[in-house]
Design brief:
Largest sheet: 7 strands, mixed
Helix content: 25-40%
Radius of gyration: 24 Å
Number of strands: 24
Distance between the termini: 49 Å
Shape: globular
Structural class: alpha+beta
CATH architecture of the largest domain: Roll
Oligomer: single chain
CATH class of the largest domain: Alpha Beta
Number of domains: 4
Number of helices: 16
Length: about 550
């Protein structure tokens, strides 16, 4: 039995009360003793050497962002692309949400919950909240939303919720979810964007139109979406986190070309620019711009479609891994800002350091090709989305490297949208520098997507058409287990298995690289990849 109280609200209340009982002089003395200077309006303080200054947030303004990905749909149950996901997370709330340190979950629209001793009944207490149209968030809205998410005919993320047996309302502020069997990552799964809470009345009135005219209870509301151009968000005046967001608006421009995003940042046309090329980091860390590097749950690799020959041959897949010099890529293309990956999915908890990545070994790669179904080599098209300089550089490197083992690569440049569609339809043989980011802090979600071929909901290991009964079994065993020791063992076995099976060509674990103007304060990227924009403010 366990309870999770709304500790964040309590801490804020206690802090506010404490601040109210102190004079300004008291605050400055206590802060200075801790190595902090607090900037208080209308109160001048003498400089204290060696201390850092905490500035009070400024409200108002428009945060202008340049992104390389744009939304395809704003209906939480529809998309699976990061262009959509990162925008959805600004507009909607879930029952739980990722905590600021990206280590677990925190209360969202559920302010607290109780788990039964058998780990099969979850009772959630809902907080008082409103959607951006002013309507209250009700238990009925929550149940309606979750039933959509749990339905494999509607949502391909339903594979996370196969153990759900029933959802019911106990009263206007309480809902209960019963599971058919224990599911350890269940609370984390409820923080996934696809489990966002939507207003039942609005969705029922126009189910198909909701994806372009969304209404949520998140920090921002959608004002306008112009496909291929921008996403314009405005403050949700009814947001349940008092005082947030700090900015009035967020304008996300769709700018797929790396160099153009950099130029816009330097010219002051945007305040933030995503995925700065590693070669430009030092150049932007000067003057009025900086690059903020933050760790992600992200795995970069080369997709190999197991449903197409010769990628169905394990020896071929292993050969391509040995023929790819990942360390050289990290040093020459990523300028040392990433780690060579020793897994085929993001680096979460339970990740094992002692699993060795594939070394660069052309001699071994040649032997594997010689013993494979294509001993004389083969020709292959490699799909590369345009505009990303890192992807282009990786493609050129593997073209030269793989030629040494008789693999003739033809680089096929496609716009990002077309490339993503080809990937979703398994219409490719090799796709370079595709990547996986995790929407949760536990490894169950990406493991289920990548390695559980029998999972319901539509994914079916679409990334690679990887079929392994053993991998599927390990994913399911880990989800059922309530033992951390056992979960460590099971995910360790999975890591060894998929590396040996050469699911894809594993490259590196890469970080977020966000270019920021000096006036942007408190910008943070969760390890899940999206940004806590409700925390951002702009200095005058």
């Amino acid at each position: 039995m366990s309870d999770f109280s709304d500790f964040e609200d309590e801490l804020l209340s206690d802090e506010d009360a404490a601040l109210g009982s102190l004079t300004r002089a008291d605050l400055l003395r206590r802060a200075a003793a801790s190595g902090v200077v607090i900037a208080l309006p209308g109160f001048a303080s003498s400089a204290v050497a060696g201390v850092r200054r905490i500035e009070a947030p400024v409200r108002g303004g428009v945060l202008r962002m340049a992104r390389n990905e744009e939304a395809q749909s704003f209906d939480p149950i529809v998309p699976g692309d990061n262009g959509s996901i990162y925008s959805i997370q600004q507009i909607f709330d879930q029952l739980t949400r990722i905590n600021p340190s990206s280590t677990y979950i925190a209360p969202g629209l559920a302010k607290s919950w109780h788990i039964s001793p058998d780990r099969k009944t979850y009772t959630f207490q809902l907080r008082t909240a409103r959607f951006s149209n002013g309507a209250p968030v009700t238990a009925d809205d929550v149940i309606f939303s979750l039933k959509r998410t749990f339905n494999p005919k509607l949502c391909f993320y339903s594979f996370l919720f196969t153990s759900v047996k029933s959802v019911r309302k106990l009263n206007s502020k309480t809902i209960q979810i019963k599971l058919s069997e224990p599911n350890t990552p269940f609370l984390e799964s409820l923080s996934v964007f696809a489990a966002a809470i939507v207003p039942e009345a609005v969705v029922r009135k126009d189910p198909k139109g909701f994806g372009q005219r969304p209404i949520g209870s998140g920090a921002f509301a959608l004002k306008k979406f112009a496909k291929g151009q921008f996403t314009h968000l405005v403050r949700n005046p009814h947001y349940w986190q008092k005082g947030k967001p700090y900015v009035n608006e967020v304008m996300m421009d769709y700018v797929p070309d790396d160099n153009t995003r950099i130029l816009k940042l330097q010219a002051g046309e945007v305040d933030a620019s995503t995925l700065i090329p590693y070669s430009q980091i030092s150049r932007l860390n000067r003057g009025k711009t900086r690059v903020q590097i933050e760790q992600l749950f992200r795995w970069d690799g080369i997709w190999l479609n197991h449903a197409r020959k010769p990628m169905s041959d394990k020896k071929v897949r292993q050969a391509l891994n040995y023929a790819t010099d990942k360390r050289a890529l990290v040093q020459r293309v990523l300028f040392g800002h990433a780690q060579v990956a020793n897994h085929m999915m993001p680096k979460h908890r339970y990740w094992r350091k002692n699993v060795k990545p594939y070394p660069y070994d052309i001699a071994k790669a040649k032997k594997l090709i010689a013993a494979s179904s294509v001993p004389k080599g083969f020709s292959v098209n490699v799909v590369v989305p345009t505009g990303d300089t890192i992807v282009s550089q990786v493609a050129q490197v593997i073209k030269q490297s793989w030629a040494q083992i008789g693999v003739k690569v033809t680089i096929q440049n496609l716009d990002a949208g077309t490339a993503a569609t080809r990937w979703a339809n398994s219409d490719f043989t090799v796709g370079t520098n595709w990547y996986v980011t995790s929407d949760v802090t536990a490894p169950d979600e990406p493991a289920g997507i990548e390695f559980d071929y029998a999972a319901p909901g539509g994914f079916h290991s679409a990334f690679a058409n990887y079929k392994s009964a053993k991998a599927s079994s390990l994913v399911h065993q880990a989800a059922r287990s309530g033992s951390e020791k056992q979960r460590v063992r099971l995910f360790g076995q999975l890591q060894h298995l998929v590396m040996d099976d050469a699911y894809g060509v594993s490259l590196f674990f890469s970080p977020a690289r966000t270019g920021l103007r000096s006036n942007v304060k408190n910008f943070h990227t969760r390890k899940t990849g999206w940004w806590a924009l409700e925390e951002v403010w702009l200095a005058k």
